[in-house]
Amino acid sequence: MKYTPWFVRGIVILLIIIVALTSCNKEENEAKITIGEVTRSVFYAPEYVAVAQGFFEEQGLEVEIQTTAGGDKTMAALLAGSVDIALVGAETSIYVYQQGAEDPVINFAQLTQTDGTFLFARNTEGSFDWEQLRDSTFLGQRKGGMPQMAGEFALNKHGIDPQSDLELIQNVDFANIASAFASGTGDYVQLFEPQASIFEQEGRGKVVASFGTEGGLLPYTVFMTKQSYLNDNKDIVQKFTNGLYKAQAWVDSHTAEEIAEVISPFFKDIDPAILVSSVNRYKEQGSYATDPIIDEEEWNNLLDVMSAAGELKERVNLNAIVDNAYAEEATKSK
User: Fold this and answer.
1) Where in the chain is the domain with CATH 3.40.190.10?
2) Quick one: 211 exposed, middle or buried, by C-beta within 10 A (0-12, 13-18, 19+)?
3) In which family does this protein belong, per the annotation (predicted)?
4) Cβ atoms 16, 213 nearer than 8 A
5) Could you tell me the CA-to-CA distances from 145 to 43, 68, 75, 220, 243 in Å, in that order?
6) Which residues contact 45 (CB under 8 A, 6 or more apart)?
7) Distance (Å, rounded) from C-alpha 300 to C-alpha 304?
8) Which 8-state DSSP code applies to residue 288?
9) Does domain 25-114+219-331 fall into CATH 3.40.50.280?
């Protein structure tokens, strides 16, 4: 048996101790955050880029993403404390505020700045005209949710009353809307990407209009958390926003092909060509916010859309449930 000198054994033991201590320190220094996202969509590409490119990790954050299908479920998860931060429509924070919550939900970083749904028609013949929706069956989104309100806003803009000029279906759960349309329900449906492109590839119809283009700029999807969490974790929220802003800048400066490649692990069952076309659709219409700041003009547009849908008790001042301090600080770090 070969003899190992005592000093060699000592060095090995020392190295093991150093590695162990380093690992412990890394775990202690990393802050863990659980995000509840309203759906898994290419619409949220910057979020996945921040994880995949290590921008959150650079900030000392370990981020876990949970998909909690539907705005109501996502907000319920946030209020219950099962997630730390929610990625959901800003309208949900307004609903909580309107109910007089003692611990209001605060919007601190914007991810998308347009609606993310597309009008998908089952009939692919001829050119599209909004008048074709009259007397049709429209498979809509959840009442009071941002997709539905943005859809109604666009329909009204083109002289179509969604309550009287067509048959509006709103009793299908958010997670089952695509499958309901695939099974034959509705002449038209609102779809996010990549589902819209998948249905086009499958020959189920075609995208005929963009609600994002129709509705203009607004804080459509926002990272938000409870005021109590914000008060206790200011440093974590700042680091999170820093990582997000770096991802937003990365998305803004890279091609759809490059973005699709980076986010592909989050969409393992999606054809790479579909990912590229989906990202490209959102980039072309400017859906991805280039910074996390929620500005007043966009906020007021959101209130206008909610008011038109009859879902706003009274207009909520931007500063009541929006804290741009983290976003503004993050933009200084570029």
Assistant:
1) 25-114+219-331, 118-215
2) buried
3) Belongs to the bacterial solute-binding protein SsuA/TauA family.
4) no
5) 16, 14, 12, 11, 28
6) 251, 259, 263, 279, 282, 288
7) 6
8) B
9) no
CA distance 139 to 118: 12
What is the rounded average pLDDT of the residues 103-129?
95
pLDDT above 50 (res 24) = no
pLDDT band at 27 (very low <50, low <70, confident <90, very high): very low
Q: Which tens digit of pLDDT belongs to each residue from 101-114?
A: 899 999 999 999 99
CA distance 160 to 133: 8
Q: What token pair was written down for 49? A: 């880029």
Which superfamily does CATH assign the domain made up of 118-215 to? Periplasmic binding protein-like II (3.40.190.10)
What pLDDT score was predicted for residue 13? Answer: 45
- Which pTM value belongs to this model? 0.85
Question: What's residue 334's pLDDT?
Answer: 58
Q: Residues, the chain, total?
A: 334
**Residue 16: its pLDDT value, please?**
44
Residue-wise pLDDT for 151-186, tens only, equals 999 999 999 999 999 999 988 988 899 999 999 999
Q: What is the DSSP letter of 270?
A: S
Query: In degrees, to the nearest 5, what angle opens at C-alpha 222 toward C-alphas 217 and 223?
Result: 160
Which two tokens mark 35? 């995000």
Which of the residue ranges 194-198, 250-254, 324-328 would you say has the lowest mean pLDDT?
194-198
The mean pLDDT value for 296-307 works out to 95
DSSP reduced 3-state for 302:
helix
Q: Which residues pair with 221 in a beta bridge?
A: 89, 112
**Residues 234-238: contacts with CB under 8 Å, at least 24 apart:** 236/31, 236/33, 236/61, 237/85, 237/108, 237/326, 238/326, 238/329, 238/330
Using CA atoms, how far apart are residues 78 and 224, in angstroms rounded to an integer? 9
11, burial (CB in 10 Å: exposed 0-12, middle 13-18, buried 19+):
exposed
Q: What are phi and psi of 16, to 5 degrees?
A: -60, -40
